[in-house]
Write a structure and sequence with these properties.
114 residues, alpha+beta, two-stranded antiparallel ribbon, two-stranded antiparallel sheet, 16% strand, globular
Length: 114
Amino acid sequence: MGKTDKGEHPLMFDDYVVQQVDPQWLQERVKPKRHIGLTPELCILCRACEDVCPWECIYMMSPNIVKDADSPSLMTLASQSHAVFIIDDNECTRCAICVERCPSDALWLGRVDG
């Protein structure tokens, strides 16, 4: 068995029961009051978050996609970046698999106040 980036074996669970879930229930899923955060200084652009996301809702894109932005501050920020990190909030379930997979701890799970 492989080891994590921290040199530890990942936890394996086998005390679960597989059940079929009502597809309608999944469509009406309620998202937890959490959000995925990124500390850009820690990101090593490995794209592991994109690879591991089961919902395929994480995108690391070229800063050139921001070239026609209306906001000067956004243009400045994009010109100084190596990538633009995007999470499709409509698809993200906050499962936090990307947070667990991030080898540099650049991603984190935060609570939404209110």
